[in-house]
Automatic annotation (TrEMBL):
Transmembrane segments: none annotated. It comes from Streptomyces cyanogenus. Pfam families: Transglut_core (PF01841). This is Transglutaminase-like superfamily protein. Residues 29-133 form the Transglutaminase-like domain. SUPFAM superfamilies: Cysteine proteinases (SSF54001).
Length: 196
């Protein structure tokens, strides 16, 4: 699949905003701690990915009903759904000048129908590489990789699932609106869009 930037301006994939708030002290402190142990930007990216994947539980897996959406809140509260965890990873990577995009998959939802799944793409050596920080569990073994995707799921077209090829510099407005409006995770599952 060819990944398509939604803007040709690569600096947009380094920008901070209200959601990917890599200027926030919590993000900066976490990035500095991870960077201190990394030999280069590749090692830093892998460490940031593994930190978000492993140290911040997916709220569905942990039973946490809170809905986070701002990167600094995800890092401070240590909880989030896939979209929120992707925002946190994007902020950590952008804090160290690694271009990072947000991207989406349409997947079958556990409770029927479909839902959008959030992940990121990082730019190394002139190419984009998708990474899924959702968090591993039985049946899910996502890994950081620049030599072939190791995502949580591979969409099944026969089930109406698909990869969206667009790389967004900011969260998709439909996803962000659902995250911001949700008082809790059960409500989010009912309002999260199932397509872009």
């Amino acid at each position: 699949m060819e990944l398509i930037q939604n803007t040709a301006d690569l600096s947009a994939y380094l920008a901070a905003d209200e959601v990917i708030d890599h200027h926030h002290p919590v993000v900066r402190e976490t990035a500095a701690r991870l960077a201190a142990e990394a030999a280069d930007s590749y090692e830093y990216a892998r460490a940031a990915y593994e930190f978000v994947r492993d140290a911040i539980p997916h709220s569905q897996d942990s039973g946490d009903l809170r809905v986070t959406w701002r990167a600094s809140d995800v890092l401070a509260l240590r909880t989030g759904v896939c979209h929120a965890k992707s925002h946190a990873l994007a902020a950590l990577l952008r804090a160290e000048d690694i271009p990072t995009a947000l991207c989406y998959q349409r997947l079958a939802h556990d409770e029927g129908g479909h839902a959008l799944h959030g992940l990121v793409a990082v730019r190394f050596n002139g190419a984009w590489h998708r990474q899924d920080p959702r968090g591993n569990k039985p049946g899910v073994d996502a890994r950081f990789s620049l030599t072939g995707e190791r995502l949580a799921w591979t969409p099944d077209p026969a089930a109406g699932e698909l990869d969206h090829p667009v790389l967004y510099a900011e969260p998709h407005p439909l996803v962000l609106a659902a995250l911001r409006a949700a008082p809790d995770r059960p409500h989010l599952w009912k309002t999260l869009p199932d397509s872009l």
